[in-house]
């Protein structure tokens, strides 16, 4: 998973703020809705319609609008719930979105909701902190640097093409504004006795963000591409001085008649892959002189989250212990012989595509059923594990954005956490039931992943004599290509993929499957594995089986499927 297997994240397929525009009629009050918590039926419907419009970036929402058909997915569903909590003052479960994807049904469900889903998470509130302990995630990142003696292991990059003229002065002003706006990008990590503490530096008086301009226009296309990769890699390997606290630097490559390439270098302690899209969105505004919207006074920042996690550590462990013991026991029962894991400097990426027609067929019926694209791909991957390995359960790893609190929707910081599902492949006869089962497991894991997976699994894994990585058959990731084309913003798009160049040795789970929706609407599926003959053969078999499962799913929700042994 991200914190274990990779030291670099690129913007080539990361856009948590991705939206699909649409139009609908003005939203009338939901029929048959009684008074909601703290509001009349009309007021509740109007409030929730405003939330849907904000999250989906639409002008209007009508009673028949389907969240997933309008471009919603699991990350946006979490964002929706966070907005709802702030707007109506009631904590509602994420499951409510998936069970009621149609707006009118969602309003009615919110009005009926009576907190039967169990206690909410401890509340995260803004405290205006300028000093806080490291989160457990950050602590792990720094321990990884020390263990590998490789200070650049947590460096990240975002690479985009620029679709308009961008002067160096405009870029400098833009990145400086970005650092002033987001405290995480100007947070120093310094020793504090036997531990470390992070301190937000004042926005005024900061040194300029390092910006380098490189002119490649006179080079041949082949030489230009090679030089760009070489210069990015050289900068990528330069460690950040965490004690200084400015955790961003950038390069801009001038390419003659071709689009310029902008490269942002960041540190994982300040940013995760899920907020690279937020950083690029704000940079697209600040580089053309538009102010970046300030956070609301009651919005928590990254340091508030770090303090919250530490203060509630025992409660979070106690709340999730039974869930993770069940997951570990289920996977340990079906565990194949553990594979000896070793760091390797060589790996391979195998890629194939699901055709447009089948991709569209899948998206049509899953969206109508309130099932996400991630759940669909993860179900296909779990089925592939069962078919290839003759297994009755599959351990599917994943990355969660971990933004379950109101006010963190677009906060820059290192929030993401690895998680794990134990997918039972028995007793499922049709595609819809398997995808729904995976989605239920995903939501259960999301609710109980507030700490690093290694922390959550340590006790139950030790009881059974296994390691967390032994339980993970395949990590699944679903990404969207970043593109900024809003009026009055600097146009940015992905055109250069440096992820293969910048990957470091796989340190955790042996295989990762990444699904990316392409501009032509095909679904690209890439599996990464150690470059050894046996590993490569099994990875290819898993990739082929995943594509076949998706092709089978595309035939319809009631298509019969064979699951494991």
TrEMBL record:
Entry's Gene Ontology BP terms: amino acid activation for nonribosomal peptide biosynthetic process; enterobactin biosynthetic process; lipid biosynthetic process
Any GO CC annotation of this UniProt entry: cytosol
Stretches with biased composition (Polar residues): 1-10
Coiled coil stretches, renumbered: none
Bilayer-crossing regions: none
Ranges of biased composition (kind: Low complexity): 30-39
Pfam families per the UniProt record, alphabetical: Condensation (PF00668), PP-binding (PF00550)
Every Carrier domain range: 39-114
A molecular function GO annotation: 2,3-dihydroxybenzoate-serine ligase activity
UniProt region (Disordered), positions on chain: 1-39
Gene3D superfamilies, A to Z: ACP-like, Chloramphenicol acetyltransferase-like domain, Nonribosomal peptide synthetase, condensation domain
Name assigned to this protein: Phosphopantetheine attachment site
The organism of origin for this protein: Micromonospora pallida
């Amino acid at each position: 998973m991200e914190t274990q297997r990779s030291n670099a994240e690129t913007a080539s397929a990361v856009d948590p703020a991705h939206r699909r525009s649409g139009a609908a009629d003005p939203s009338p009050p939901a029929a048959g809705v009684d008074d909601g918590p703290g509001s009349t039926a009309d007021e509740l419907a109007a409030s929730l319609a405003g939330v849907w419009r904000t999250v989906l970036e639409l002008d209007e929402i009508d009673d028949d609008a389907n969240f997933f058909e309008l471009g919603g997915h699991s990350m946006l569903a979490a964002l929706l719930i966070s907005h709802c909590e702030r707007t109506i003052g009631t904590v509602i479960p994420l499951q409510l979105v998936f069970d009621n994807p149609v707006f009118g049904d969602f309003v009615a469900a919110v009005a009926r909701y009576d907190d039967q889903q169990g206690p909410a998470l401890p509340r995260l509130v803004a405290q205006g902190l300028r000093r806080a302990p490291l989160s457990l995630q950050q602590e792990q990142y720094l321990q990884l640097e020390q263990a590998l003696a490789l200070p650049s292991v947590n460096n990240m990059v975002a690479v985009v093409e620029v679709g308009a003229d961008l002067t160096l002065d405009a870029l400098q002003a833009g990145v400086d504004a970005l650092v002033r706006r987001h405290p995480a990008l100007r947070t120093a990590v310094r020793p504090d006795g036997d531990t470390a503490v992070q301190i937000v530096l004042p926005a005024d008086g900061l040194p300029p963000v390092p910006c380098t301009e490189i002119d490649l226009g006179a080079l041949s296309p082949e030489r230009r591409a090679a030089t760009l990769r070489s210069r990015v890699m050289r900068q990528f390997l330069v460690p950040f001085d965490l004690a200084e606290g400015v955790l961003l630097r950038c390069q801009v490559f001038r390419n003659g008649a071709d689009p310029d390439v902008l490269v942002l270098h960041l540190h994982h302690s300040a940013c995760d892959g899920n907020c690279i899209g937020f950083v690029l969105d704000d940079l697209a505004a600040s580089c053309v002189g538009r102010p970046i919207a300030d956070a609301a006074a009651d919005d928590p920042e990254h340091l508030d989250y770090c303090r919250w996690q530490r203060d509630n550590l025992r409660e979070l462990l106690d709340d999730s212990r039974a869930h993770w013991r069940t997951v570990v026991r289920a996977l340990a029962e079906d565990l194949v012989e553990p594979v000896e894991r070793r760091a390797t400097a060589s790996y391979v990426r195998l890629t194939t595509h699901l055709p447009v027609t089948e991709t569209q067929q899948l998206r049509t019926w899953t969206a109508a059923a309130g099932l996400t694209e991630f759940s669909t791909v993860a179900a296909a991957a779990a089925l592939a594990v069962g078919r290839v390995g003759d297994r009755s359960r599959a351990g599917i790893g994943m990355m969660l954005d971990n933004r379950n609190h109101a006010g963190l929707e677009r906060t820059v910081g290192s929030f993401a956490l690895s998680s794990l599902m134990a997918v039972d492949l028995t007793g499922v006869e049709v595609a819809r039931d398997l995808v729904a089962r995976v989605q239920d497991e995903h939501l259960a894991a999301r609710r109980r992943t507030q700490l690093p997976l290694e922390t959550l699994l340590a006790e139950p894994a030790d009881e059974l004599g296994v390691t967390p990585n032994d339980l993970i058959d395949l990590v699944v990731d679903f990404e969207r290509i970043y593109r900024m084309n809003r009026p009055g913003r600097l146009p940015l798009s992905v055109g250069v993929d440096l992820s293969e160049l910048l990957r470091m040795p796989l340190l955790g789970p042996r295989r990762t499957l990444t699904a990316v929706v392409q501009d032509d609407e095909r679904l690209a599926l890439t599996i990464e594995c150690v470059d050894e003959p046996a590993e490569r053969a099994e990875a290819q078999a898993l990739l082929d089986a995943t594509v076949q499962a998706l092709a089978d799913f595309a035939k319809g929700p009631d298509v019969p499927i064979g699951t494991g042994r």
